[in-house]
Write a structure and sequence with these properties.
3 domains, Immunoglobulin-like, 2% helix, 2 helices, four-stranded mixed β-sheet, 50% strand, Porin, 29 strands, mainly beta
Length: 491
């Protein structure tokens, strides 16, 4: 393999995503949440740290240019960190060794290393949907720095992640401004195997990927589709652009570790890549990967005191690591002990608010609530219920379960009654309360109800063909005034 195939690539990724996911999605090979090619826009606990080590094998069939089958060994090492729950960054190093035993010039193999750097931001739209932009810049390797700088390539995507319970789904669409082909200006001199191993392109691409992850409780099933649709003058047809399908499984081993298995296949036809053809990316037809993932939650903050230098230093056993997050669950019922299913529930810790997600049976849960200073406030509100607030203790590091009753919210005061003609027939009328301006229409029985604040009001009753009637009422706190009106026909 030629020397410039041993160059380095530098990737800068800017990913924006949104929301709190009840079941944590898998850690991808870039050490951040997601699948192999689909990033999940998911907020992380502050001081979150993760690592990923992946090894794999890729097979590419003979391309009909005097070559035989190609083999590729893959390696990937990455670390990720989240200084805040809305921002994360990662550093990743890709390695591959291409083996093409007979491509017309004899055996010619070599290594390629690819360092990547990324950042990710998180913005929630609601409790289940999160979106954000993704920016990728990479620098393909070359024999000279000037050629590498000319070949800087930019990917811009928009990410969206939806999560409902144990199911998470990610979608990414965008565009690649591809200059990588400038790093292979003398590619026409290469053997077919070396040319295939370049991984460079003379064409821009429309990017798209969609993936699903389902958490079974310690084991996550995942699958995804992705495509890079090559565009530009003389670009190959869409059927020859990279189109992939992948599937896999991740299993939690405990102590923050997880084992990840995945396989990916390329469905698209192969473009021509002879010496006179443009550079196009040709990926292995089938790739299998196994990875080890590690997720470290933020460490607990310990109070520090200055030791007495004159006193003897006692030997004390090392204190066990303290948990930094706990699950918090609220069971909310009404006055009749029936579950309240549509409340807005949140936990406030050190001024930061975390929403709890309901299951439709009156249970609301937050899987990973930061312990913070050990205390928090649990609040619930919603239409038709009286807002409640409860103090909760988080410092013990044990799951927090709270049962609370949200009484039915009574109106502060009310005016109700009937509007009829002197013949006793119900009338279709408008009833307005002054000076508040609240107005309602009577129903088919002539009845009306208006919720008001305590005080003195003038009630104006109007019906077509009848004289307007004005009545003064005084409403006490949580009182109900019954006002029946018989209207006289207009002259």
């Amino acid at each position: 393999m030629r020397p410039y195939l041993r160059g380095f690539r530098v990737l800068a990724v800017c990913v924006c995503s949104v929301g709190l996911v009840r079941a944590a999605p898998p850690i991808a090979s870039d050490a951040l949440p997601g699948l192999e090619r689909t990033a999940f826009a998911t907020p992380l606990a502050p001081a979150f740290l993760s690592g990923a080590l992946t090894l794999g094998y890729g097979f590419t069939e003979a391309q009909g240019v005097g070559d035989e089958a190609h083999h590729r060994q893959l390696g990937r090492l990455a670390v990720g960190i989240a200084p805040a729950n809305w921002f994360a960054a990662n550093l990743r190093l890709d390695e591959r060794f291409d083996l093409h035993p007979d491509d017309g010039v004899g055996e010619d193999n070599g290594w390629v290393f690819d360092p990547r750097l990324g950042t990710r931001f998180t913005f929630p739209l609601n409790e289940e949907l999160y979106v954000g932009p993704d920016l990728v810049a990479w620098l393909p390797g070359s024999e000279s720095a000037s050629e590498s700088l000319k070949a800087v390539t930019l990917d811009a995507r928009l990410l969206a992640t939806f999560s409902d319970g144990s199911l998470s789904s990610g979608l990414a669409v965008g565009y690649r401004l591809d200059n990588s082909g400038k790093a292979g200006e003398d590619a026409a001199r290469l053997s077919p195997g070396d040319r295939l191993a370049l991984g460079l392109s003379d064409f821009d691409a429309i990017l798209g990927s969609w993936g699903l992850a389902y958490d079974l409780g310690g084991t996550v099933l995942k699958g995804e589709l992705s495509a890079d649709l090559l565009v530009g003058s003389e670009a190959p047809p869409i059927s020859e652009s990279p189109l992939r399908v992948g599937a896999g499984v991740a299993h939690t081993l405990g102590a923050g570790f997880a084992l990840d298995f995945s396989v990916e296949g390329v469905l698209s036809a192969r473009p021509d890549f002879g010496p006179s053809d443009p550079l196009v990316p040709i990926e292995p037809r089938v790739t299998g990967m196994v990875g080890l993932r590690y997720r470290l939650e933020p460490p607990a903050k310990a109070a520090s005191t200055r030791p007495d230098e004159s006193a003897p230093k006692p030997v004390t056993p090392e204190a066990p690591a303290q948990p930094t997050t706990v699950p918090v669950e609220l069971h909310l019922i009404d006055d009749d002990d029936q579950p309240v299913v549509d409340a807005n529930v949140e936990l406030e810790i050190d001024g930061q608010k975390y929403p709890l997600t309901g299951d439709g049976n009156g249970n609301y849960k937050l899987e990973q609530a930061p312990i913070g200073k050990g205390r928090g406030k649990l609040r619930a509100s919603g239409e038709g219920i009286t807002p409640i607030e409860k103090d909760v203790e988080l410092g013990a590091g044990k799951p927090v379960k709270v049962e609370a009753k949200a009484p039915v919210a009574l109106p502060t005061a009310q005016v109700r009654g009937l509007v009829r003609s002197f013949q006793g027939k119900p009338l279709k009328a408008k009833v307005r309360v002054e000076p508040s301006g609240k107005e309602v229409s009577t129903d088919e029985k002539g009845a009306f109800v208006i919720d008001v604040e305590p005080g003195e009001y003038e009630v104006v009753i109007e019906a077509q063909g009848f004289e307007t009637q004005r009545r003064t009422v005084k409403v006490a706190k949580q009182g109900v005034v019954v006002l029946n009106a018989d209207l006289v026909k207009g002259r």
